[in-house]
Design goal:
The complex is a heterodimer of chains A (about 400) and B (about 450). Chain A has about 400 residues and is of the alpha/beta class. Chain A has 14 helices and twelve strands. Chain A has two domains: about 260 residues, Type I PLP-dependent aspartate aminotransferase-like (Major domain) (Aspartate Aminotransferase, domain 2, 3-Layer(aba) Sandwich); about 120 residues, Aspartate Aminotransferase, domain 1 (Alpha-Beta Complex), CATH 3.90.1150. Chain A is about 40% helix and about 15% strand. Chain A has a seven-stranded mixed beta sheet, with helices on both faces. A three-stranded antiparallel beta sheet of chain A has the order 10-12-11, with helices on one face. Chain A has a two-stranded antiparallel ribbon with strand order 8-9. In chain A, helix 5 links the parallel strand 2 and strand 3. The relative contact order of chain A is 0.13. Classes of the chains: A alpha/beta (about 400), B alpha/beta (about 450). At the A-B interface, helix 1, helix 2, helix 3, helix 4 and helix 5 of A face helix 1, helix 2, helix 4, helix 5 and strand 2 of B. The complex binds pyridoxal-5'-phosphate.
């Protein structure tokens, strides 16, 4: 997990920031509006895009906002389209979002390198395709090297390139999506900009766009008024509408801005470099012990499979549970779907070399156990207050609340 | 570089282990023409003291030290200190989504408690682990009703929070769901005869808010009766959670979409807040969002897991009930702690204080201006109609460090010079007297709005 700087928490609790009412007059909201403005400017520069909305509450909410913008754009062109292309490696929120905004989902297969299959894309691209939702680096931790071709294929037929920016921790300060042809993208402030994960939220999913999509941004939009003060503009006739009450998860904006300030341009770049270095160090350390389904270079995360261990009846979830006994929070299991038995490892920049060495050692030790004593792994975890919990029973007869004994 | 634990020597050693000479080689997969060869144009690195100073400065520009009468979907209640002490613990703050149940029992149990207490308060049978906020919860609850009824059109009360209505319109329009708006009567509550006429055989659900945007409590039982007679579903939005301490919960509803911000969540200029959906057990498979369920481990010991995931995007992809993934977990924990600290008796006492303060304020106001919908039962908000433009009045109040009620003109021009005032347990009697005095003074010497120094108030 990425470190959550404690100074972020402190500044988010300063009186006028923590207790500002969303409807207090603009005249006495200039501090909050200045925070929105400065963060917006930073994120626009980091992504290389032209404009941004901070309103969406999480990544998936940003996806919905982004696709609504795509839809409104095509509508304004007098040619509403029906489909969205989504690679088979994509996160589940991508197809779920497309369905929510009433687009048909068409799967796009990956090639043997784990990247978008360019020939397949060419064949599937048509004037019925509104956009391609591309995660870059994708969920295998692989940078789409032919991104310029992908963008060209889309643009040639009037489609838009949507980028799921959940993995921006691999790119900040090194490369900007706006420079490689992305038209609309979302960021996850809770993944890339150090706002706390909180056991599953809150998030924040700003959507950054190219100039031609600006009229469609959700209302209201931040503006500088003629007297130089900041305010909101509500009169946006082409807007997709509002996606959330008020202005977004403001408390997360405060934290993200504090993080950017603590780093500066050189710090952000170094952060990205360290995140990529850590993932590659793990890859090197575990290659040969665990199966690496795609040998394409790794960015911020590396995906192994349990192919070797499965022969002993041990699956990725078992290895994950055993890792708990070694004092580590498990990696992501069983995702992405194109890798059967996936072990997705994303160390982030926050782990030290010592910690990485311990992790690699633990993973190697578990691999040995799988060969010599698989039952120990299958019965893991052994060190927790509860042992493996019965998820099937939980779903079969759901008990979703406590009830007093009768 | 403040948050990076590696020394240059560590980096060197790691690169060497990988078999590389420079870190740039790690970025070789990115086509060279796109690689950034300059610094980002963002503020230079700041020291911690500078960061703290920067935000203190912004805080000063942000209405520090005002007495506020604003509610309208975001409420100022006391937050017990223990909330921040507990949620600041790294085990809660940094913890990942509790997919690995064996090491996430704390998070999971707290969500289970949250679901339980929301059920107790709303009279529903199941509640989810949270939604983004009250507005998106309402929109998702409506979509849930659309799936459950296989009908597509929606009737929404004009007395629902206007921004919730806007959010619903965004969600519904792009799915081709027709919306019709039901007006309110002279008492500020849903006009029942007119509203029944809007229900057609295609109506999936009716969405109302209670207490509604004007603070009036709707006759949910009567409304439910009408809605159910047409085999449609009733979705009730609750924006002021503290009302549940004293107002009968809308248990006749089929789905409740709530904003729990009032329970210990800072105003924070509008977010993060805590939405939640609660409903009947029989509808649970169409419910969006995460759910925690109770189960047993291999030794039969009680424990908790995320459950019914086959509704969700990571399993069902385009067939999921919603695209929601990350929710508002840490904020739901604040809510949970708040409910635990206040308890049954405390919440009732809290709600009573809100009622009393509001009754006093509305009474005093009515001596100098017109309190609309005065005959309807209300919770902690009321509408004051004045001769003068409320923006002008508020502008004058600001000079006395008072933030007046929320002007309703933009959303409800039919109410004329009206503003929505809110009092909570934190509003003092002297603050009420001061505000009423200033409004009364204004009213005695009404100038035309044009003359007045009208400030465009954030709306
Ligand atoms: C690649 C990717 N896309 C989208 C999302 C969805 O973001 P969120 O959970 O904030 O809605 C996630 C994370 O959960 C992700 O990893």
């Amino acid at each position: 997990m990425k470190y959550n700087p404690r100074v972020n928490e402190a500044v988010a609790r300063v009186e006028g920031i923590a207790n500002g009412h969303p409807y207090q007059p603009e005249k006495i909201s200039q501090g909050a509006l200045q925070i929105l403005k400065t963060l917006s400017e930073c994120l626009i520069e980091i992504t290389g895009m032209d404009a941004i909305t901070l309103q969406p509450a999480a990544g998936a909410h940003g996806e919905m906002t982004g696709l609504l913008i795509v839809r409104a754009y095509h509508h304004s062109q007098g040619r509403p389209r029906k489909k969205v292309l989504i690679p088979d490696s994509a996160h589940g929120t991508n197809p779920a979002t497309a369905a929510m905004v009433d687009y048909a989902v068409e799967n796009l297969k990956s090639d043997s390198r784990g990247m978008v299959d360019i020939t397949a894309l060419e064949a599937q691209m048509s004037e019925d395709v509104a956009a391609l939702m591309l995660t870059n680096p994708n969920t295998l931790g692989v940078f789409e090297q032919e991104i310029h071709k992908i963008a060209d294929i889309l643009h040639a037929k009037g489609g838009l390139l949507y980028m799921d920016g959940a993995n921006m921790n691999a790119l900040v300060g090194k490369v900007r999506p706006g420079d490689f042809g992305v038209d609309v993208m979302h960021l996850n402030l809770h993944k890339t900009f150090s706002t706390p994960h909180g056991g599953g939220g809150p998030g924040s999913g700003p959507v950054a766009i190219k100039k031609k999509l600006e009229p469609f941004l959700p209302a209201p939009v931040l503006m500088t008024k003629s007297d130089g003060t900041l305010g909101f503009e509500y009169n946006r006739p082409q807007s997709v509408g509002r996606v959330r009450a008020f202005y977004g998860n403001f408390g997360m904006f405060v934290r993200a801005l504090a993080y950017i300030q603590a780093n500066g341009p050189d710090g952000l770049r170094q952060t990205t470099e360290d995140a990529v270095l850590n993932a590659n160090y793990i890859r090197k350390g575990l290659e040969g012990t665990y199966d690496l389904p795609y040998s394409t270079p790794t960015m911020h995360e590396v995906v192994f499979s349990d192919k070797v261990q499965a022969k002993k009846g041990v699956r990725t979830m078992d290895i994950a549970k055993r890792l708990i006994d070694y004092g580590f929070h498990p990696y992501t299991t069983a995702f992405p779907l194109i890798v059967p038995g996936a072990l997705m490892i994303e160390p982030t920049e926050s782990e030290s070399k010592e910690e990485m060495d311990l992790f690699i050692e633990a993973m190697k030790s578990i691999a040995e156990e799988v060969q010599e004593d698989p039952q120990t792994v299958l019965d893991a975890p052994h060190s927790t207050r509860v042992s493996r919990l019965d998820e099937t029973a939980a779903a079969r007869k759901p008990v979703l609340r406590w009830k007093p004994a009768v | 570089m403040r948050y990076l634990p590696k020394s240059p020597a560590d980096r060197e050693a790691m690169l060497k282990a990988i078999g590389l000479c420079s870190v740039d080689e790690l970025f070789a997969p990115i086509p060279a023409e796109y690689r950034l060869s300059r610094d980002l144009k963002i503020p230079r690195q700041m020291a911690e003291s500078e960061i703290v100073d920067y935000f203190r400065q912004r805080s000063r520009e942000n209405g520090e030290g005002y007495t506020s009468f604003l509610g309208a979907g975001a409420y100022s209640h006391y937050r017990p200190v223990i909330i921040d002490s507990l949620i600041s613990r790294g085990e809660f703050l940094t913890a990942y989504t509790p997919y690995q149940a064996e090491i996430s029992q704390g998070t999971l149990q707290s969500i289970f408690e949250f679901q339980t207490m929301i059920c107790e308060l709303t009279g529903m049978e199941v509640a989810n682990a949270s939604m983004y906020d009250g507005s998106t919860a309402a929109a998702e609850a409506v979509m849930m009703a659309v799936r459950l009824t296989s009908r597509r059109s929606v009737v929404v009360a004009r007395s629902l929070h206007p921004e919730y209505r806007e959010v619903l319109a965004t969600y519904a329009t792009h799915q081709g769901m027709p919306l019709s708006v039901a007006s309110f009567g002279d008492d500020g509550r849903l006009n029942l005869t007119e509203f029944e006429k809007l229900i057609t055989p295609e109506t999936a659900c009716v969405l109302i808010q209670s207490p509604n945007f004007f603070g009036s409590i709707e006759d949910v039982a009567a409304i439910a009766e009408i809605v159910h007679r047409h085999d449609a579903m009733l979705v009730v939005s609750i924006a002021e959670a503290v009302s549940l301490g004293i107002v009968e919960p809308p248990r006749q509803a089929d789905v409740i979409a709530m904003e729990a911000q009032s329970f210990g969540v800072p105003l924070g200029f509008g977010g993060p807040y805590c939405g939640v959906i609660a409903t009947r057990e029989k509808f649970v498979r169409q419910m969006p969002g995460r759910l925690v369920g109770q189960t047993v481990d291999r030794q039969g010991k009680r424990g908790f897991v995320l459950t019914l995931a086959t509704r969700e995007q990571h399993i069902r992809r385009e067939k999921a009930t919603s695209n929601i993934c990350t929710n508002q977990a840490l904020v739901a924990l604040m809510v949970n702690i708040f409910m635990t600290v206040y308890g049954k008796v405390g919440l009732k006492e809290l709600a009573k204080q809100n009622l009393a303060k509001t009754a006093y304020a509305a009474g005093t106001f009515s001596e100098h201006g017109k309190v609309l919908f005065a005959a309807s039962p209300r919770f902690n908000e009321f509408v004051v109609q004045t001769k003068e433009d409320p923006y002008a009045i508020n502008s004058r109040l600001l000079g006395h460090k008072v933030i007046g009620g929320f002007p309703l003109k933009k959303f409800y021009p039919e109410l004329g010079n009206a503003a929505l005032w809110c009092c909570t347990e934190l509003t003092t009697r002297s603050a009420i007297d001061t505000a009423v005095g200033l409004v009364a003074e204004s009213e005695r010497s009404v100038r035309s709005p044009k003359e007045a120094d009208v400030e465009e108030v954030t709306r």
